[in-house]
């Protein structure tokens, strides 16, 4: 990004928002009171529900091994893991393969959803690619660029969005959580009625190459002044080569935005000084319809490539 654009964006963010939660996931941290655990998603506490499992504030599949929460009961943890976080995982799976984000098992395997003999196993940065020729999983574009052509498993866009909102809700400071009653209800339900006052857009930015965000960073910003025509809360997370930013739906404070246009601006990051962004954009995750067999081509750039397509059988 050009320097003056970075400065313009930084000024805009300073004028309009205050950072109210900011986590660099470099060391172990537990959110909330460990002696008095209350689930912020269902409002229940012991003995009605249990808190025996360690709940991740940011999904483990993004390689979060540091930020945990006392605000999430086992029941909600189980439910989110099998619903919205599963959709996020399916959506991000090709990106995890491309960036070797291995998750808790230390290995990750991609299988083509239709031609299952076409697969990639990634372990410790090593790729094992098997293909029967029906699918060109890895394509050499030029000396420094490989493209992987993966197909996503079926996912529902609004559930991917909800998984991002759930991360934001996990890091909301206790003093602000009462503003999100309806948002939490919406997260827990399949109803659509309360959510349609603005679209579910995500700014996704992809920084190709070996220079990455050194750790996961998750931040929540709050609008400085409620008279501003900009959303009350915005959340962003960056990890590996990726950056995601959303408006956190806040039905209490954002009624004023109904049908109004507002600008959705990215937050400058350290990588903006050194890299150009590829494959970025505003993605619409409003749909409740399952997306089947979506192609997800991702280009990877290498200054010096140690991988080659010679590995393909
Ligand atoms: Zn709960």
The structure class reads alpha+beta
Number of strands: 15
Small-molecule binders here are:
zinc ion
Number of domains as seen in the coordinates: 1
Helicity, as a percent range: 10-25%
Mean pLDDT: 88
Give the terminus-to-terminus CA distance: 40 Å
The H/E string reads HEEEEHHEEEEEHHEEEEEE
Number of helical regions:
5
Q: How does the major sheet shape up?
A: 6 strands, antiparallel
| Poorly predicted residue ranges | 304-313
Shape: globular
- Strand percentage: 25-35%
Query: What is the radius of gyration?
Result: 20 Å
- Give the strand order, joined by hyphens, for the main sheet: 1-11-12-13-10-14
Topology:
Layout: H1 3-16, E1 17-24, E2 29-31, E3 55-56, E4 67-69, H2 74-82, H3 84-98, E5 107-111, E6 119-123, E7 126-130, E8 138-142, E9 145-151, H4 157-171, H5 181-188, E10 201-206, E11 217-223, E12 233-239, E13 242-247, E14 278-284, E15 295-301
Parallel strand pairs: 2-4
Antiparallel strand pairs: 1-11, 3-4, 5-6, 6-7, 8-9, 9-15, 10-13, 10-14, 11-12, 12-13
Helix pairs in contact: 2-3, 3-4
Bound molecules: zinc ion.
